[in-house]
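Same chain as my last thread, 389 residues:
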Amino acid sequence: MATKTQQNLRQAYDKARRVNPRPITGRETALELLEHAFGAYVGRQERTAFELMKRSLEENASVFLTLSGAMTPAGLHQSCLIPLVESGAISVITTTGANLYHDAHRALKHHIREVNPNAGDLQYRTARIIRIYDLGFREEVLLDTDRLFSAIIRQSEFQRRMTTPEFHYLLGKHMNAIEQELGIEQPSLLSTCYRRAVPIFVGAVQDGSIFLNVVKLKKLFGSEFKFELDINDDVYAMAAIQHYCRHHFSKRMAIWILGGGVPKNYTLQGEPLLDQILNVPTQGFDIDVQFCVDPVDNGALSSCPAGEGHTWGKVSADAVETGSVYCHCDVTAVFPWLTHALMQTKVARRKPFRLMEKLDEAIGFLDKDVAKRRKELLATVEWSVKEVK
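reply #2:
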């Protein structure tokens, strides 16, 4: 006689989706292929990722996209991210300074080309060609890009203390003006996010060439150069935007993680900052979609799945049970395909949230909740070794 557990498993099995792909004719849309031809293994992970991306937009969730690695040299922003920003799908971006820096090469009408990764790096260095695996560009591309950002950051409106979304919003404003003046047809990610008021956070801004030029300017101009980044306000701003989104719009939040790294945790840590540090109740992200090549069993944060994140309060219980997928793949091999399918749906186009324009309001909204808890928060900053004894 079957146990109750066995009966439940059999019932679930009988209701489960059949793996029954149809012959591919070449006339199918991306949506049709995802429906029947991706039934197992990484293919099934891809299909699940697409379903959760689509669900994010169906539920009008605030979509926080994180981007690590050398994705802009590979053009992923041109093929996927810029269309998604322009369609209103993406609400907030967290990335690396490198992705924003390398994106600017094309605005200067420089080219990134395919190269042979096995041609010999000593020879590439002699030829003054910079290599990113199978991509390459001339060394003068870096020198021209350094001059561009140095000239922009010297402008008067940068001479104050600010957060990274404020910094990148200003950079986007200037990049937008430069692209219009030069007649650049393909906009940069910075200028696109400026026009759509999408905040761009960079959690390790000092680990990138844009900030290396800030170091140069500070040494050249000393006290006359007053630009400064406030990392305290930056971390708080991320939590404030998440808290604001939770209590406005659809009250749902999704995170799409492209590659892990610092951008992943910098975004996810906003939830434990609210709940565990500031005592402001929250529940974690409702949908968690991640694309990463790393194995999940080495303890690395880049590859940790939603369940592990849930133990930290980063994602909700619902996300772990029905709203997460770890797609074990190279982002560049999968995300263009899923973006293509997503753009074939009506939900991919929605009114943009324009959260950059609501940043001050979001910070003020969180300030009020923190002020209400000041007394209980004060108790968390007092400690004595006697408590351990």
